[in-house]
């Protein structure tokens, strides 16, 4: 398998490129709209063709480039079937393998950050989305978030993998790129060690985090698989495709 980790700095998002050497097909997990040209160039540079974009969930902090990549490269849009988005062509179902040539991902329903969140396992790697971050986890205070559900998703499902399983999150804000299940079980301050369900729920409910600054634009944009709403204010334009026209770009 061909593998590459890509980073988008405005939303601190990791996009993952997976390629099948046998068929020449590639997929991108959680691609971000401002970097669609870079991502497609990486696919082409490797001599691959983009077959799919694959989402872990409906994002609140950036807009996916799925629709743009479909227009430019003919790729199909895949995402959780539970979201029932009309623009999604392949619905991901818990436990039903997602196959692209020799690449077969195991979808894992991991609710808690959002109710329909998915992680993916393949070849010793867990792509954990926002459910499990490096020494952290995603928020549970919007989009049907549920701290008890997240606790069971991480400790009951993701922590069930071998300690040497590599953890590739959707974000990191400290320039870290990779962890392992064993490291997160031992060192994650929110979900590791002997943390009880009751303690975790109390911790998450007491965080009192600020309202996500891009959520009101990201959610409608991502429900359309990557449409930048026309009312995005100038100071947030860097999260959209108009990055080149923004003073932030």
UniProtKB/TrEMBL annotation:
Keyword Metal-binding tagged: yes
Gene3D superfamilies: Ribonuclease Z/Hydroxyacylglutathione hydrolase-like
GO molecular function, one term: metal ion binding
Protein keywords: Metal-binding
GO biological process, one term: hydrogen sulfide metabolic process
One protein family per Pfam: Lactamase_B
Highest taxon listed in the record's lineage: Bacteria
InterPro entries given in the database record: Metallo-B-lactamas, Mito_Persulfide_Diox, POD-like_MBL-fold, RibonucZ/Hydroxyglut_hydro
Domain Metallo-beta-lactamase: 12-171
UniProt name for this protein: Metallo-beta-lactamase domain-containing protein
């Amino acid at each position: 398998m061909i593998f590459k980790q890509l980073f988008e700095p405005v939303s601190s998002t990791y996009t993952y490129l997976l390629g099948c050497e046998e068929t020449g097909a590639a997929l991108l997990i959680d691609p971000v709209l401002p970097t669609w040209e870079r991502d497609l160039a990486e696919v082409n540079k490797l001599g691959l063709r983009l077959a799919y974009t694959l989402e872990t969930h409906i994002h609140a902090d950036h807009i996916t480039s799925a629709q743009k990549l479909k227009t430019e490269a003919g790729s199909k849009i895949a995402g959780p079937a539970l979201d029932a988005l009309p623009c999604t062509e392949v619905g991901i179902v818990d436990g039903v393998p997602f196959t692209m040539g020799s690449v077969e991902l195991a979808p894992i329903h991991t609710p808690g950050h959002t109710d329909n969140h998915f992680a993916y396992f393949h070849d010793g790697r867990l792509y954990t989305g926002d459910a499990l971050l490096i020494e952290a986890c995603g928020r549970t205070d919007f989009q049907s978030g549920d701290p008890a559900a997240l606790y069971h998703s991480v400790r009951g499902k993701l922590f069930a993998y071998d300690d040497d399983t590599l953890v590739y999150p959707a974000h990191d804000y400290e320039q870290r790129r990779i962890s392992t299940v064993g490291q997160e079980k031992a060192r994650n301050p929110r979900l590791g060690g002997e943390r009880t369900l009751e303690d975790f729920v109390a911790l998450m409910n007491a965080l009192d985090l600020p309202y996500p600054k891009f959520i009101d634009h990201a959610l409608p944009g991502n429900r359309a698989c990557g449409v930048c709403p026309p009312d995005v204010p100038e100071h947030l334009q860097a999260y959209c495709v108009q990055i080149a026209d923004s003073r932030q770009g």
